[in-house]
Amino acid sequence: MKSRHSLIALLAVCVLASGCAKKLKPDNLPALSGNVSGTVAYRERIALPPDAKVIVSLEDVTRTGKSGSFIAQQTIRPTTQVPIPFNLRYIPAAIDRSHRYAVTASILDSQDGVIWTSEEATAISFHEPEKPVALLLQRALNPNALATPSANTGMAFKCADIEFIAKFSADKVQILLAGRTLILPHVVSASGARYSDGSNTFWNKGNDALLEINGVSYKGCKTDPLPAK
After folding, report:
1. How is 138-206 classified by DSSP, letter by letter?
2. What is the band of 83 on the pLDDT scale with cuts at 50, 70, 90?
3. Which residues does the UniProt record annotate as the domain C-type lysozyme inhibitor (predicted)?
């Protein structure tokens, strides 16, 4: 009788363990739709400029303290006022459920100056059914200072561990380091100006910048424009 009770208890444990394991299987997670949808808005009662554009980005932000990897991006030419709907399309195979993801957005003027932008990235979970995301943007304190630097200008940057000069042209930037020069093509960014060749990235917004070289990130960089020659 005792052995029979032991067998029943063992079977019960196996059933429970099987049920728990089944719950933990990735197959039981919701299927990825390939879309992240939502709206972009701001608090101020100010009309959008007629030539404004909205850029919404989905990024992998797993690497703390380093620039995220873009998963998807959408540029919208709004025909109505806020809230502005968006629908980011991504490739489900590009999503690793063990990673962290977030959505950001910016509203730019005709000169690519940032008017409104995400103060913080909005986290996205792919472990539960996808829901619409409501992005509430903050007005840029000085939109003119956040515009992309004009072509053929140079800016000297000083970070905690490195100093360099960035020389901008129409579609790329030259990063002049001690004994080394990086040439990075311009890529679309939801906020500020971003240049990257896949291994090295330079990001700049006004007088602030970030430089990433082969996975090493230099943050807190500040600058003043170089004197004209």
Report:
1. EE-S-GGGGSPPPTT-EEEEE-SS-EEEEEE-SSEEEEEETTEEEEEEEE--SSSEEEE-SSEEEEEET
2. very high
3. 157-216
- Rounded Cα–Cα distance for residues 1 and 222 (Å): 79
Query: What span, in angstroms and rounded, lies between the C-alpha atoms of 194 and 23?
Result: 42
Q: Quick check: is 162 in a domain?
A: yes
**141 pLDDT band (50/70/90 cuts)?**
low
Last residue of a domain, one of 139, 173, 199: 139
CA angle, 68 as apex, 138 and 25 as ends, to 5°? Answer: 110
* Domain limit, last residue, from 139, 171, 204: 139
Please check whether residues 127 and 158 belong to one and the same domain.
no
Q: What angle do CA 213, 185, 92 make, to 5 degrees?
A: 80
Range of the domain at 82: 34-139
- Residues 176, 216, single domain; the answer is yes
How far apart CA 201 and CA 45 sit, in angstroms, is 36
pTM for this model (two decimals): 0.56
**Who's near 192: CB < 8 A, 6+ residues apart?**
114, 146, 148, 203, 204, 205, 206
- Going by the DSSP 8-state scheme, the letter that residue 9 receives in this structure is H
In a domain, 186, yes or no: yes
Where residue 129 sits, what CATH number does that domain have? 2.60.40.2990
- What is the mean pLDDT of the segment spanning 78-87? 95
Indicate which CATH number applies to the domain containing 198: 2.40.128.200
For the chain, give the number of residues: 229
Tell me the CA end-to-end span of the chain in Å, nearest whole number: 97
